[in-house]
């Protein structure tokens, strides 16, 4: 069933089946709802309980923290006992009405196990954020911050070495345009595979596992696992830019964010971009997603690695890291780099609804870009909508209205961690399924996919 690129279907009436938890427990959606996500929520409850015990301050803050653990426990109970999804309570954010209208219009009375994966999972994170934001003493508490920072801290040696590598690569390709295509491909791959460090998918990620991931990225061993690769077509667009604009819709903080920052650094340094706009989340989201605070924390740690409380670095690597951090702080101060945390990114709608439900992000930001990079698995699922697409469906076709001829080039850099995937050769998909039945959920395979938009030849 081909899908018209301009088709804007209702969220509860998609052209292909949405992923819902299988009654027999046989699919990834069920495993996520039954095990993975409740585990994440339990961690938040336990971490908050520990923070309450350690809280030095007014008794009211301690009492309120205990009440919050009760609200989080109630949310978990509703999830695991398959209760209906209830409206969000007003927490002062402007998206509450949109969320509740979406629930009442498209999923009235639906229970957790009846609701599509993308719908219940985003609802859970938004409701969890609201529990904190309605409080007096804990409203600014990022319940994932400690874990995000600890994971980055554990990789500081690799961080410094990577920065030194990209610094040298930048100097070489700035001086010699002939080397830029190879450098671009390397940085694109690094940005892609940085997405493996996703704490919502791998909540127990150890420093040893992180180091192994980083070693594979550095060696190029992951190259054969890019199952759809439009790097050459993307470079043809990037190479035509002289002082263009690049937008990056961010995913995970820490090591993945560093890869994105290094890509942006290179794009500016070699003259491809004069402006880079980063789109983080306004609220804590999917465990490790980037907030404004996370972005500034990374820049501050680069400027002064001692802020991370990490072991000492090699002197040369530390000097490079400090210099790059100072450069990034300058780019932010000068407006060459900009952060825009539109509420749409933590809203209920897929990205095909950007022109109608996300005008602030679409009309005031993304359409002004030459290329928009969407990072990670969740952004991919929201780009194409989380459906059982035929795998060979062209990427641009699955995007719907945002792949219009006057749209910016859209690039997805995603390691596959759920069943939804498009733009894959059918024969290749059969080979992968024969080798590894759950390959699309494993996080071991990636895609670099392009919708050229106004850059189509």
From TrEMBL:
GO molecular function, a single term: metal ion binding
Gene3D superfamilies cross-referenced by the UniProt entry: 1.20.930.60, Uncharacterised protein PF01937, DUF89, domain 3 (3.40.50.10880)
Domain notes: Subfamily III proteins have a conserved RTxK motif about 40-50 residues from the C-terminus; the threonine may be replaced by serine or cysteine.
Described function: Metal-dependent phosphatase that shows phosphatase activity against several substrates, including fructose-1-phosphate and fructose-6-phosphate. Its preference for fructose-1-phosphate, a strong glycating agent that causes DNA damage rather than a canonical yeast metabolite, suggests a damage-control function in hexose phosphate metabolism.
Annotated gene: HRT2
Top-level taxonomic group: Eukaryota
Source organism of the structure: Coemansia javaensis
Cited InterPro entries: ARMT-1-like_metal-bd_sf, ARMT1, ARMT1-like_metal-bd
Protein name, as recorded: Sugar phosphate phosphatase
Catalytic activity: beta-D-fructose 6-phosphate = dihydroxyacetone + D-glyceraldehyde 3-phosphate; beta-D-fructose 1-phosphate + H2O = D-fructose + phosphate
GO cellular component: nucleus
Keywords from the UniProt entry: Hydrolase, Manganese, Metal-binding
Similarity annotation: Belongs to the damage-control phosphatase family. Sugar phosphate phosphatase III subfamily.
Residues in Damage-control phosphatase ARMT1-like metal-binding domain copies: 34-426
Keyword Metal-binding on entry: yes
Gene Ontology terms describing biological process: DNA damage response
UniProt EC number: 3.1.3.-
Names of the cofactor(s): Mn(2+); Ni(2+)
């Amino acid at each position: 069933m081909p899908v018209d690129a301009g088709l804007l279907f209702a969220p509860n009436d998609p052209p292909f089946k949405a992923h819902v938890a299988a009654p027999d427990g046989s699919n990834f959606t069920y495993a996520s709802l039954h095990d993975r996500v409740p585990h994440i929520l339990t961690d938040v409850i336990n971490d908050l309980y520990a923070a309450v015990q350690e809280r030095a301050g007014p008794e009211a803050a301690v009492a309120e923290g205990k009440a919050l653990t009760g609200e989080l426990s109630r949310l978990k109970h509703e999830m695991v006992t398959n209760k209906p999804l209830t409206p969000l309570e007003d927490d002062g954010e402007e998206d509450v009405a949109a969320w509740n209208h979406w629930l009442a219009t498209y999923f009235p009375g639906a229970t957790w196990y009846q609701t599509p994966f993308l719908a219940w999972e985003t609802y859970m994170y938004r409701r969890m954020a609201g529990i904190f934001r309605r409080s007096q003493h804990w409203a600014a508490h990022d319940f994932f911050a400690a874990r995000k920072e600890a994971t980055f801290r554990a990789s500081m040696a690799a961080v410094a070495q990577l920065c030194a590598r990209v610094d040298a690569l930048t100097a070489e390709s700035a001086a010699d345009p002939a080397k830029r295509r190879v450098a671009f491909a390397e940085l694109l791959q690094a940005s892609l595979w940085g997405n493996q460090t996703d704490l919502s998918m791998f909540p127990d990620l150890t420093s040893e596992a992180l180091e192994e991931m980083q070693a594979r990225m550095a060696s190029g061993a992951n190259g054969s696992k890019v199952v759809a690769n439009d790097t050459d077509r993307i470079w043809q667009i990037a190479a035509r830019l002289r002082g263009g604009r690049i937008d990056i819709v961010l995913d995970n903080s820490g090591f993945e964010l560093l890869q994105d920052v290094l890509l942006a650094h290179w794009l500016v340094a070699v003259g491809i971009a004069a402006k880079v706009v980063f789109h983080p989340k306004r609220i804590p989201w999917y465990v490790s997603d980037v907030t404004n605070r996370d972005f500034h924390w990374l820049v501050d740690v680069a400027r002064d690695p001692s802020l991370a409380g990490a072991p000492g670095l090699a002197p040369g690597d530390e000097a490079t890291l400090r210099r790059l951090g100072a450069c990034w702080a300058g780019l932010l101060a000068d407006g060459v780099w900009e952060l825009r945390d539109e509420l749409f990114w933590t809203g209920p709608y897929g990205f095909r609804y950007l022109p109608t439900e996300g005008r602030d992000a679409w009309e005031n930001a993304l359409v002004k870009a030459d290329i928009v990079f969407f990072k990670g698995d969740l952004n991919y699922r929201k780009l194409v909508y989380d459906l059982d697409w035929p795998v060979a469906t062209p990427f641009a076709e699955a995007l719907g209205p945002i792949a219009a001829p006057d749209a910016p080039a859209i690039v997805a850099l995603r390691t596959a961690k759920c069943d939804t995937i498009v733009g894959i050769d059918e024969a290749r998909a059969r080979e992968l399924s024969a080798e590894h039945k759950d390959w699309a959920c494993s996080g071991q395979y990636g895609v670099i996919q392009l919708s050229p938009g106004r850059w189509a030849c």
